[in-house]
Amino acid sequence: MRNDAYSTLRVSSEHGVARIILDNPPVNVIGATMMRELRTVLTTLADDSSVRVIVFSSADPEFFLAHVDMRIGEKMDALQELAASAPADVNVFQAVGELIRHQPQVTIVKLAGKARGGGAEFVAAADMAFAAAETAGLGQIEALMGIIPGGGGTQYLRGRVGRNRALEVVLTADLFDAETAASYGWINRALPADELDEYVDRVARNIAALPDGVIEAAKRSLPADDLKEGLLGENDAWAATFSLPAAQQLISGGLKDGAQTPAGERDLEGLMRSVAR
């Protein structure tokens, strides 16, 4: 797979492990281009029997995926194009997570930095996630923008952490450290930052080296849950909140005050709370 085919991803493959590095500076927001490129590369990999494991990481040590681009509503042509090619019964944001959840390969997130909103949904969609204890963070920031998660987050969280903790994550909109996320079951485990690369590489290589048929049998025996009804309900609730004037005011106010810049994203929760006040 040629790296020059993508503008927001770096893709390589060796010994049965494909590595996708997310690279959309300055803070790795999920925009229409990244969603389109992720769909392309994951669909291509799904048909590649030589690849058994996919590892996602970030080119930015601070931000795995900051969140969905807060200006994405200005790119209606690109969104309509994505919607036209999305599977039935999911929106364009949910389509990314569902593609990851149903990928035939084992999908692993290596989380060194922060993942909020759509970035946190991305992490929860993967089969496994391992994070740097000192630097990683996860949060569903949407409530502070006047909306709810709309990319599968409510459904993925409930499956991972249970209803009570999913409500805590969604309604506090806090940034959770890696050790708390691991204790909740949101990720597999938190590791010392200087051990993360080696650990994930070992897991990926060991899985890729399993005898033929083992990965397929395991994923067939442990299938991804059918979330069709829940995703439809989430989309309806997200669309209803997104259309409210308060949401538009909060989003535009956040952008004005520094959201989607490295400085603003380091404490996005504080920034958005100050906008609300």
UniProtKB/TrEMBL annotation:
Gene Ontology biological process terms in this record: fatty acid beta-oxidation
Region feature Disordered, mapped onto this chain: 254-277
Signal sequence annotation: none
GO MF, one example: catalytic activity
Protein name as catalogued: Enoyl-CoA hydratase
Taxonomic lineage of the native organism: Bacteria, Bacillati, Actinomycetota, Actinomycetes, Kitasatosporales
